[in-house]
Design goal:
Elements lengths: L1 E2 L7 E2 L5 H4 L1 H9 L8 E6 L6 H4 L6 H9 L24 H4 L11 H13 L3 E5 L12 H19 L6 E6 L5 H11 L5 E7 L9 H13 L2 E5 L15 H22 L2 H4 L5 E4 L4 H16 L11 H5 L3 E3 L9 H10 L2 H4 E2 L13 H4 L6 H16 L7
Parallel strand pairs: 3-4, 4-5, 5-6, 6-7, 7-8, 8-9, 9-10
Antiparallel strand pairs: 1-2
């Protein structure tokens, strides 16, 4: 496979292997004896597009199923187009395209093989799967596509993929434009083995506190499902449109997408309305949470009447939510990060996720090597907190 290059010759890759690609991660895991603790990767992505033909078979509508299948024909534009971006740094990060070359045994699903190779290299014992391409459905205008494709994905992962490996958990994607259908999906699939919760792709404009969401959240709370908000950036959003670098859009847009939902969640009293619902905020690091705590507390103390359902300051509710460390900030002064950890009660509320194979994935040593954490805190963040969050019992796996 050839990759574009700024030089006169193209880069050529004859083969690709996740195990070799993550050789340094495996070396780090051995050096730190990470096999002595249970590690859970709470943000592990898989490439569901490689199974697209199987997924679309779960679409009920014959018309939508035919349209979906026709879009996979060679030469057609993709159904879920990407925004302009340079995640692979102009082809220098070859895993995005080269993983297509990776060999996998025929008797095991390819997604299972590539996922478990990633887990084994990093030293993780369990992984929580999220779709990759389908997450962009949140920022495209055809809402029927979002519903039909995510319904098919949810059925496929719940009934086909997760049944093949007990180390994996999956998240149902919620197409928020379809409240009634979201509720039906949870009722049909929420109790399936391996389903750990539901995920919302954050760069969208639906109001999480709307009347239609109440029944959905109640159904999740009743079943003990985790509600995850997955940060993403939409370069087409007006506030991000002036930026001319993809990295800048990511740095600001990803946490901002979660900050909008967090603000609505808090000010509309959702923690009081759903006190048993476990909420997880993904792929935004941790710095944004401490900033928002201070801003919302200041607002609340000045205008308590605008948040009448709250019984405590916003930061008190935020301290009881869960946060994924990836992509973890690395300030020059470690005390800055230590203060952020302390603000969110990291020893009980922070979980680790790799976000592999994204450009900015984190390995376990990102957390393990922090100088201000003791052994107990490291074990909790790398696995213990996630096992409590998702109800993972190693004795039953």
């Amino acid at each position: 496979m050839q990759f574009p290059s700024s030089g006169t010759k193209s880069l050529t890759v004859e083969e690709f292997d996740t195990t070799k690609h993550l050789a340094h991660a495996a070396q780090q895991a051995r050096a730190r004896n990470l096999d002595k603790i249970t590690i859970v990767d709470v943000d592990l992505h898989h490439d569901e597009t490689s199974s697209f033909r199987d997924i679309v078979g779960h679409i009920d509508s014959t018309v939508e199923r035919q349209l979906a299948r026709s879009a996979t024909n060679e030469g057609r534009r993709p159904m879920i187009p990407r925004n302009i971006g340079y995640e692979d740094l102009g082809g220098r990060m070859q895993r995005f395209a080269a993983r297509k070359l990776e060999k996998a045994p025929a008797n095991v699903h390819r997604d299972i093989t590539l996922t478990t190779r990633t887990m084994e290299a990093m030293g993780s014992n369990y992984g929580v799967l999220y779709p990759t391409t389908s997450m962009r459905l949140a920022i495209q205008p055809k809402r029927d596509w979002e519903y039909w494709l995510t319904l098919a994905y949810n059925r496929w992962i719940a009934t086909e993929l997760l049944t093949q490996d007990s180390r994996l958990r999956g998240m149902l994607y919620l197409p928020l434009h379809h409240h009634t259908e979201c509720l039906e999906m949870i009722e049909q699939l929420g109790d399936k083995p391996g389903i750990a919760g539901c995920v919302i792709a954050s760069p969208r404009y639906e109001r999480i506190y709307s009347k239609g969401m109440i029944h959905i959240l109640s159904a999740m709370e009743e079943r003990g499902l985790v509600l995850a908000f997955h940060g993403m950036a939409n370069w087409g959003e007006s506030s991000l449109a002036p930026m001319n670098h993809w990295g800048a859009v990511q740095a600001l847009g990803v946490p901002h997408s979660n900050m909008v939902h967090m603000t609505n969640w808090i000010t509309n009293g959702m923690p009081e309305r759903f006190p048993k619902l476990k909420v997880l905020w993904l792929e935004s690091g941790v710095a944004w949470a401490t900033y928002l705590m201070q801003r919302l507390d200041a607002m609340y103390m000045a205008r308590i009447s605008e948040a009448p359902l709250l019984k405590e300051k916003p930061s008190h509710y935020m301290k009881r939510m869960f946060y994924c460390s990836q992509p973890l900030e690395r300030p020059d002064d470690p005390a800055t990060l230590e203060a952020a950890f302390r603000a969110i009660n990291a020893e009980t509320q922070l979980v680790w996720g790799s976000n592999f194979p994204s450009h900015d994935f984190d390995v376990p040593s990102t957390v393990y090597d922090l100088p201000f954490l003791d052994a107990k805190a490291k074990a909790a963040i790398l696995g213990g907190n996630a096992m409590k969050l998702f109800g993972i019992d190693p004795t039953k796996s």
